[in-house]
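Hi U.,

Before I forget, here's the chain from the pilot set. I'm dumping it here mostly so it's searchable later in email.
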Amino acid sequence: MATKKVTITIPEDLLEEIRAEVDERGISAYFTEAVRQKRDRDLLAELFDWLQEEYGPVSESARAAAWAELAEIDAEHETRRASARESEDAA
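Structure:
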């Protein structure tokens, strides 16, 4: 993938926090991932707005059902992570 070098300005304390987490080569990857996540959220917001214009607002019952399903998925992921940690500890 082609890349381009850019200059950004961020608060010094934030940069120090990031540097504590990643090495110098990892800073670009860190920012790339953060920008991708932000862009994905922006695109989802655009889709959400379009869907509401096209089909109307989401009902409270549909919203509650979606949150319940997400909670089930999160619980399943946590169960799998805990199982993986237990397997690592046993090894």
